[in-house]
Structures are given as structure tokens and as C-alpha cells.
Amino acid sequence: MSSIADELFESRDLLAVGVSVAVSVVTIAIGTTGVARLPPAVLLLLVLPGYVTAAFAYAGRERAPWTFTTVVERFALSLGGSLAILPLLAIIVYLAVGALTTWGLVGLVSGYVVVVAAATVVRRTGHSGGGGHRTGPARSGTEISSSGLLSGGLTPSTVILAVSVILAVGTLGTAVTVPADGETATDLHLLTEQGGQLVANDYPNALTQGESAAITVGVTNDEHRPVEYTVVTELQRVQLSGRSVVVTDKRRIDQHAFELAQGESWRESEEFRASLAGENVRFVTYLYRGDPPENPTADTAYRTTYVWLDIQPSAASGE
């Protein structure tokens, strides 16, 4: 029992790590100013993950006393390890929740640091062998344990450096295939049929009230996951006031719900009648992920696109 207590005392650096995690999370949670949040955020994201990883890898070795030289070495190793680990944790958050959120990253990094720190305490206790403090001169940084896993000329720092490089390369490869946060990952487009082919031009811009026309709506999923979509098409008369657009009248054309896997596309020809006359009339398409609201608008839609129409009143309408 005494040896375990002694070993736990020797792991007081990891106790400081736990306190640092708690302080960092509380600082972020209470919403202090950006300047006040910067030091704990840097500590949590850029120092602690690498520190606990290195501490876990070095748990079986005699720990050198804290001197200026060892502090500099440990900080450099912690920073390098964190820069390799943090992008990987960020990608895990993105794949898990579909977005890189502040609390998602803070939660995962905090959990990683705490779990690895606890595992390091257990590993240090196990290496004590139940016999109290290890005796004898501390081994130098180049001395190798003949019975340990790190044999044949490999030092813990070499292994950590190799693992960091592997993680960095893997992270870079994954980052290439995962769209950046905010990148357009679903394509909504309007097409017309010309000569048996669908093209993105020659839209029906001059119609007579009551005349029919057709525009093809297309959706392509590049969200890297299956998505349920709903497309709502409307014919709208709008009033322009500066940069603002006010919808004064509208007619629902159609609504479609469908699911697309990654890389799949959906297209549908929307035939409509020019029931609204005027120069400021447009064919509008709203795209939603999931179910749309009762009154779709550009503010609530995931994607919006439209084409302007010039619809002349018919002689019979008198409008």
C-alpha cells in the first residue's frame, strides 16, 4: 500500500494535468473573454494531449527530475505530440457529429487526456513492482532496457516520433477525403433540355400568363453519408427594395422527398404553368435535409436556387 501511495505521489504531474483539464473546461464554459480563454485553450489543445501520450510511453522508465532542460524537452515533445494527435481527434469529432464543434472537440480532447493520464498512473504503479521506489542510478536517455519492449536500439522518443509521423500522415490523408467545415457538400442545380441534353442555360425567361414551361431540378449528394432530402419548388412574384427581396405572391409547384447515398444524384423535370404575371417573377427551388417547414423560405432552406422569369399578362386575364 505504501509503494502505491509513493507511486501516486510521484504521479503528481498527472494530477496537475487533471486539474488543468478541469480549469480549461470551466473557463470555456463560463464564456470569458477571448483573451482569458486563450491560455487554457492552448494548454488543453496543444500541450496536454502530447504530454500524457509521452508520459504513457515513458511510464516504465525512471523519471528525471524537473530541471530547466527537462522542462524544455518535455514541452517540445508535448507540443509535437499534440500537433499530431489534435487533427486526428478533430476528424473523429467531424465524423461523429457531422460538424467540427467547439464542445465536441473540447469534450473529446478532455476525455482523451483524462483517460490516458489515468492509464499512465496505472502503468507507473505496475512498473514499480510493489517494491517501493526504484533504486540505482537513473538510466540515461540512450540506455535501453534489455527486458522491455523498447529493445534493439529503439528509444521511447524514437517510437513516439515514428507514431507521430504515422498519425500526421494518416490525418492528412483523411483530411483530403473529408470536406472542410462549411464547404458546399450538396449540389443543387437547375437545368433545361436542349437537343435531348440537359444544360445549365437557355432557361424559359419570356412567357405569357397561362403558358406552360419545364425546368429540371437536380441534386447531388457529396456529404460522405446518406442524406434524406426534400425539394420544394414555387413560382413567386417578388418586390425588390434595395438589396431586400419581399415575396408578395407565390404558387406551390411541387414537393419531393428522397434519400441519396454518397455520390448519388436525383433529377426531376418540374412542369409549371405561368400563373403569375410580371417582370419580377421567379422559379424558386428550396432544398432541405429532412422535412421542410410549413412555409419554406430562403432563410430556413439548406440550399436555394432560382431563375428569373418575365411573364407577360395574357389578353384574357387583363392583369
Structure description:
The protein has a 5-stranded mixed beta sheet, with no helix packed on it. It has a 4-stranded antiparallel beta sheet with strand order 2-1-4-7, with no helix packed on it. About 20% of the residues are buried. It contains 7 helices and 9 strands. The protein has 2 domains: about 1-135 and about 150-175, no CATH class; about 185-310, Immunoglobulins (Immunoglobulin-like, Sandwich), CATH 2.60.40. Helix 2 (about 10-30) packs antiparallel against helix 3 and helix 5 (about 70-95) crosses helix 6 (about 100-125). About 40% of the residues lie in helices and about 30% in strands. The longest helix is centred in the first third of the chain and has 30 residues, at about 70-95. It is of the alpha+beta class and about 325 residues long.
- Order of neighbouring strands in the sheet with most strands: 3-9-8-5-6
- Helix/strand order: HHHHHHHEEEEEEEEE
Q: Helical amount among residues, as a percent range?
A: 40-55%
Number of strands: 9
How large a portion of the residues is in β-strands, by DSSP E?
Answer: 25-35%
What is the SS-derived class?
alpha+beta
Q: Give the averaged pLDDT, no decimals.
A: 78
Stretches where pLDDT falls below 50 for ≥5 residues?
130-154, 168-183
By oligomeric state, this entry counts as: single chain
Largest sheet: 5 strands, mixed
Shape label:
elongated
